[in-house]
Specification:
About 35% of the residues are buried. Among the domains are: about 100 residues, no CATH class; about 80 residues, no CATH class. The protein starts with a helix and ends with a strand. A hairpin with a 4-residue loop joins strand 4 and strand 5. Helices cover about 25% and strands about 35% of the residues. It has about 375 residues and is α+β, with helices and mostly antiparallel strands. It binds zinc ion. The site of zinc ion has 7 residues, from loops.
Length: about 375
């Protein structure tokens, strides 16, 4: 019996055994989940400016409650030593700039919700406040594959919603200016779109989140886990986030294009990134991995040099180094990296979730598989 079949059988028995508690969707009143999220779209400083468009014009509101309608369809914002400049008119403090029709565009992307221009540390932070549901709908366009089936999108809708709420709660407890950025450091947010399967996934899972100890979990996910066992990853706090410490390997992403990857980096390029002197560089070897096989430390060997760099830094050299699970080998004037997986190997595996859907598992079973010790709860 191969590991794939064994994994399927083990999962099926596990899910049926846990049926009684996991499938009960219970309302948890103690979770004070925010209904909106604050997304940083831009930081403006120096001479940088930003054009924002809205067909209905804007309502400008200062912190002391003064309101003013700006009928202009196009406005230009920039930082100025005296404050925020809007169409060359200065405002000394943070302001709300809300599109009157609820929709605005900037940099060829269109968003719903409100805008806040926060003046802080000689910068303007352009923050979009939008409902959690609208935000999840938007990020699913980039974080999921709209061609994937409804059940996979339902799985990812709950995951993205839970992640967003946990990050919003964390940011607000730390009194941050915004909750998340719009990049893949959090979840990629490129504004509105029209994708019926995603709209249906949101509707079918409305208000459902993943909880542990009656709190939203930090629902991390990556594209392809590469079969790495998360409980062996050194950075996972098994006590604080036991739901990220899955003790079994996901066999479901093996058909993902990034399950096995290889990339070659010229030594010239590598030396610019490290940085080090190419004349003395000989090779780059891995000196430390954690129990999961993720690279923690590498050694640059050469004439008179012996220098260590971290696995994290190496991962940042190029997006062709797709994960932290890799080996290195010198070939000619290049270093060849051979690895497995795409992303950080923690939490839900998106390609694995898609494969599980194709095998007939529903979103509840998939979420339980990737986030052990959790349950689904309703926050509405
Ligand atoms: Zn996987």
């Amino acid at each position: 019996m191969n590991i794939f079949v064994l994994g399927t059988i083990l999962l099926a028995s596990f899910c049926f055994a846990q049926n009684s508690w996991f499938f009960s969707k219970q309302k948890i009143a103690s979770i004070k989940a925010p209904s909106t999220i604050r997304v940083l779209l831009h930081e403006l400083k120096g001479k940088k400016s930003l054009v924002i468009k809205s067909k209905g014009g804007f309502l400008l509101e200062t912190l002391d409650g003064k309101k003013q309608t700006i009928p202009d369809v196009i406005i230009t914002i920039c930082w100025h030593q005296h404050g925020i400049m809007i169409n060359k008119i200065p405002y000394k403090n943070t302001i709300n700039l809300n599109p009157l029709n609820g929709i605005f565009s900037t940099n060829q992307r269109t968003y719903r919700g409100k805008l806040r221009l926060i003046l802080e540390k000689n910068k303007i932070f352009v923050v979009n406040t939008v409902s959690i549901e609208e935000y999840v709908y938007c990020v699913l366009k980039t974080e999921s594959w709209p061609g994937w089936p409804l059940e996979t999108n339902k799985t990812l809708a709950i995951t993205c919603r839970t992640y967003a709420i946990s990050k919003a709660l964390e940011a607000r407890s730390q009194k941050k200016l915004y909750d998340v950025t719009d990049t893949n450091k959090f979840q990629t947010y490129h504004g509105i779109h029209k994708t019926p399967v995603i709209a249906q996934a949101l509707k079918d899972t409305q208000g459902i989140i993943i909880a542990h100890n009656n709190q939203p979990i930090l629902a991390m996910y990556d594209s392809c886990c590469g079969g790495v066992i998360p409980s062996r990853i050194e950075t996972i706090n098994q006590k604080k986030t036991p739901y990220l410490a899955r003790t079994y390997a996901c066999p479901y992403c093996k058909n993902c294009p990034a399950y096995h990857w290889q990339t070659s980096m010229p030594i010239t390029h590598l030396c610019k990134k490290i940085p080090c002197n190419e004349k003395y560089f000989n090779t780059l070897v891995i000196t430390k991995k954690d129990r999961a096989g993720l690279v923690q430390e590498l050694l640059i060997k050469g004439k008179g040099i012996s220098m260590t760099i971290t696995g994290n830094k190496t991962y940042s050299f190029s997006n062709t180094i797709k994960s932290f699970y890799f080996d290195t080998q010198k070939k000619g004037n290049s270093i060849v990296f051979k690895g497995r997986g795409l992303g950080h190997h923690i939490g839900l595996c998106q390609w694995g979730a898609h494969e599980m859907t194709k095998k007939g598992f529903n979103y509840k079973q998939i979420l339980q598989y990737y986030y052990p010790t959790t349950k689904l709860v309703s926050i509405i």
